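Retro notes (design track)

What went well: tokenization of the new backbones is finally stable.
What didn't: we kept losing track of which sequence belonged to which structure.
Fix going forward: every design gets posted as structure first, then sequence, in one message. First example under the new rule, 112 residues:
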């Protein structure tokens, strides 16, 4: 196939215990939807629902109808278990309850 008639793309999905990366050659003008369908990744990972999954191309959110370019990587994201802002807030609160060593290191040596 001529380079102008086809594109090379990858479809990836990662779980905590396994990562899947599928390389494909698709016709020029293919969409994210086309790549996911051609990869048959939902067959390997039945928990994936392309219609509701959060998708990206190299870390930037995208839609199923977005066109692909040569060497794009389609990423299928798992749902977040915990909101990142909430997780950070919990870590800060835990550190404050435990007493931060950051505050102690500036005390004069005599007062430690």
């Amino acid at each position: 196939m001529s380079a102008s008639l086809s594109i090379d793309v990858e479809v990836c999905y990662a779980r905590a215990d396994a990562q899947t990366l599928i390389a494909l050659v698709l016709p020029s003008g293919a969409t994210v939807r086309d790549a996911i369908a051609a990869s048959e990744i939902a067959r390997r990972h039945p928990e994936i629902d392309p219609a509701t999954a959060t998708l990206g191309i190299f870390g930037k959110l995208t839609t199923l109808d977005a066109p692909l370019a040569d060497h794009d990587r389609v990423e299928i994201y798992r749902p977040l278990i915990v909101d990142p802002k909430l997780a950070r807030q919990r870590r800060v609160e835990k550190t404050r309850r435990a007493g931060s060593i950051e505050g102690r290191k500036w005390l004069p040596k005599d007062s430690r």
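Added context from the reviewer: Residues 7 and 69 are 7 Å apart (CA to CA).
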